[in-house]
Amino acid sequence: MKMSLIKSAVVASVLAIASSTVMAQDARSLDQLLNFVKQGQATEAKENKAREARFKNAKNRQAQLLAEAKVMRKNEEDRSARLENTFEQNELKVAEKQRQLKERLGTLTELFGHLTSTAGDLRSSFGNSLISAQYPGRDEFLDELIAKMSGAEQLPSIEEIERLWFEIQREMTESGKVVSFTAEVAKPGGEKESRTVVRVGTFNVISDEGRYLQYIAETNTLAELARQPSGAYIGWASDLAGSTSGKVPFGADPTGPSGGSFLAALINSPTIEERWHQGGNVGYAITAVGALAFLLAIWRLIVLAAMSSKVSAQLKSDKANTNNPLGRVLMVHEQNPTMDTETLELKLSEAVMKEVPKIEFGLNLLKIIAAVAPLMGLLGTVTGMIITFQAITIFGAGDPKAMAGGISGALVTTVLGLLVAIPTVLLHTVTNGQAKKVIHVLDEQSTGIIAEHTEAQLGK
């Protein structure tokens, strides 16, 4: 038992000093193991002494660094006191200099105040002025001038004050001129090219191709409007770009050089073709029906005009001609001269009735189209309003322009229906009048023939 305890103690000692190189050896006996333990303890004692020596040296070094830090802090505190004293003296000097500057400026302070206000207003005007596209760099000059007049380090020179007056006069003078100059123009696709542009005062600027341009103040560049105004405005712009003197009509926008409200309204206003497309499928159907009615009415007018001409020629002829309705009716009497009055009257009525459908062909269709076209327009309007209100239900009515645009598009079909119905009614009236005129001649002549035939029989 005692031997086991000794072995356990020895093993614990060996594990405690396992880092020693001596203990790394294999012991062959207990005496050798005890010797190894003794040597390990001696090595540890030596290492501990070396470690304690290093700790003492480090402690001495820390004390030395602490002393040096205290000396440095004392020096910096002395320097800070000197700088504070110098700063207070400089503040007194600055206050004295500012007082002297204010006394020497005198009434110039008020003058600089007015100049600063004027330069600020002019800077705001130059920001959106088309003249800045022709004369760049004016904004930078005004910024420097305002900084000088607002600060206390520098004073504006006489030349700078005179230039401020010059820029005001040049802005006023150039606003009444129509001039051309070369500038870089950005195309809608993003590419840039140098072109000759024409500036109309401070209202509009166009390219040499007759395209309206937009002035972008942030980049001081000109850009071609992606959508140009329709109508005669493009033609006027082309005429102005190609003219060298004289008077040329031109649509100037007085509300701004970057596409003001008037020009924007013209640009955003849809063309007739775009409005027609807004009608959708119902609009296309109304257009097709209207085209059919127009072609049918023109064709019937031509046919009735030719027919009326032949009937007029027949009235002047003594012999019936079968190339016209009246001739075919008269042919019945010529072929049956001895027929009794009642039978002849029935024969002539039959002949007239045969001609009436040919004369009135297409008139009922014109009448139906005139009645159906407004109903088709109303159908398109109701359908468009349903779609608009569904969109409002989903997205809300926060954008009045979008809601108004949807309602406007829905009403296009109503306009198309009326545009078809009104001319169709007029064409139907004219065509029906021509047809009634021919039919009246047929009835008149047939009645006259019966009267003559009756008189002839009574005379016998």
Automatic annotation (TrEMBL):
The keyword Nucleotide-binding does not apply. Residues 324-442 form the MotA/TolQ/ExbB proton channel domain. It is a multi-pass membrane protein. The keyword Mitochondrion does not apply. It is found in: Cell membrane; Membrane. One of its GO terms (biological process) is protein import. InterPro entries: ExbB/TolQ_transport, MotA/TolQ/ExbB-rel, MotA_ExbB_proton_chnl. It comes from the Bacteria. Its main location: membrane. The chain crosses the membrane at residues 282-307, 368-395, 407-427. One of its GO terms (cellular component) is plasma membrane. Residues 55-100 form a coiled coil. Belongs to the exbB/tolQ family. This is Energy transducer TonB.
